[in-house]
């Protein structure tokens, strides 16, 4: 069945904005500018400020939701289901997980390449699968367990590629690259906890996806914005990558933006892209399928890698291709993308998961991720 022009537009929008989201964040990290009070020129290293911008983009999904709802209600035959009323505080625990995981990942992005950053985020499959078995009582079929083990193998290969490239990378020390990779994987544990919390407490209330993302974005934006104040006074020694060596120096970030306004373009690219990415991703699921969304999400890793190579942000390593292909295979096995082929071979047919193994449940686990 051929796609309509609208479906092609949605697929292209999701692929483009998803790629821009990571690339713009990495682009911001590559700028250097003077700071406040005649502080000499230094790199723009403000992961928590970047995370605030990302949550602002998620928060914008709430405005999109109410705009669409108002437009729908004015039509002769309203079709949009806003969902039942709910307590917004339901979203506070997953929002705190999102805030913590996102902040850690932006710290890690300062230390490693954009392509490795995107590839290593595939580790979320491992922890989501294990936590869903432990806390949601879900039973994974053999292909999903195989997908988890294949994903672990892929992570090892990508890690080896970074270890090899770290010896030849002038922009990052080997220790920084390894630390960054470990932080990304650690962040996926927190992201997996977020997904399990959403599955257990939030989605049973049938909340509209845009409303869910926007509400989490609201909590993340408000809480992290307030936390920037104490972060300004918390010393972290040599771990701090800003001149004052504090957890986050938001004033330094604003001063650097004043000296180098192009940084704001990169930050806005991250904010705007995350809003459009969530909208496009949910629309792709509705108009095409959750499987298509998963495939497009994997393709953006290729786009990020290709653009990074073209811009000279990183050097080519064959191990990364192998690692990406293995991670792609692991994701395909876990998400059941192999099933249509297996169904044509009677001796390979496997029983569908009894609890929560369908595309709808897996779609809930990928909603709202930047």
UniProtKB/TrEMBL annotation:
<feature type="transmembrane region" description="Helical">
    <location>
        <begin position="120"/>
        <end position="138"/>
    </location>
</feature>
<feature type="transmembrane region" description="Helical">
    <location>
        <begin position="145"/>
        <end position="165"/>
    </location>
</feature>
<feature type="domain" description="EamA">
    <location>
        <begin position="45"/>
        <end position="158"/>
    </location>
</feature>
<feature type="transmembrane region" description="Helical">
    <location>
        <begin position="89"/>
        <end position="108"/>
    </location>
</feature>
<dbReference type="Pfam" id="PF00892">
    <property type="entry name" value="EamA"/>
</dbReference>
<keyword id="KW-0812">Transmembrane</keyword>
<keyword id="KW-0813">Transport</keyword>
<keyword id="KW-0496">Mitochondrion</keyword>
<feature type="transmembrane region" description="Helical">
    <location>
        <begin position="259"/>
        <end position="282"/>
    </location>
</feature>
<dbReference type="GO" id="GO:1901029">
    <property type="term" value="P:negative regulation of mitochondrial outer membrane permeabilization involved in apoptotic signaling pathway"/>
</dbReference>
<dbReference type="GO" id="GO:0022857">
    <property type="term" value="F:transmembrane transporter activity"/>
</dbReference>
<comment type="similarity">
    <text>Belongs to the SLC35F solute transporter family.</text>
</comment>
<dbReference type="GO" id="GO:0008284">
    <property type="term" value="P:positive regulation of cell population proliferation"/>
</dbReference>
<dbReference type="GO" id="GO:0005739">
    <property type="term" value="C:mitochondrion"/>
</dbReference>
<dbReference type="InterPro" id="IPR000620">
    <property type="entry name" value="EamA_dom"/>
</dbReference>
<comment type="subunit">
    <text>Interacts with SLC25A5.</text>
</comment>
<dbReference type="InterPro" id="IPR012404">
    <property type="entry name" value="UCP036436"/>
</dbReference>
<dbReference type="InterPro" id="IPR037185">
    <property type="entry name" value="EmrE-like"/>
</dbReference>
<protein>
    <recommendedName>
        <fullName>Solute carrier family 35 member F6</fullName>
    </recommendedName>
</protein>
<feature type="transmembrane region" description="Helical">
    <location>
        <begin position="177"/>
        <end position="197"/>
    </location>
</feature>
<feature type="transmembrane region" description="Helical">
    <location>
        <begin position="48"/>
        <end position="69"/>
    </location>
</feature>
<feature type="transmembrane region" description="Helical">
    <location>
        <begin position="294"/>
        <end position="313"/>
    </location>
</feature>
<dbReference type="GO" id="GO:0016020">
    <property type="term" value="C:membrane"/>
</dbReference>
<keyword id="KW-1133">Transmembrane helix</keyword>
<keyword id="KW-0472">Membrane</keyword>
<comment type="function">
    <text>May play a role as a nucleotide-sugar transporter.</text>
</comment>
<feature type="transmembrane region" description="Helical">
    <location>
        <begin position="218"/>
        <end position="239"/>
    </location>
</feature>
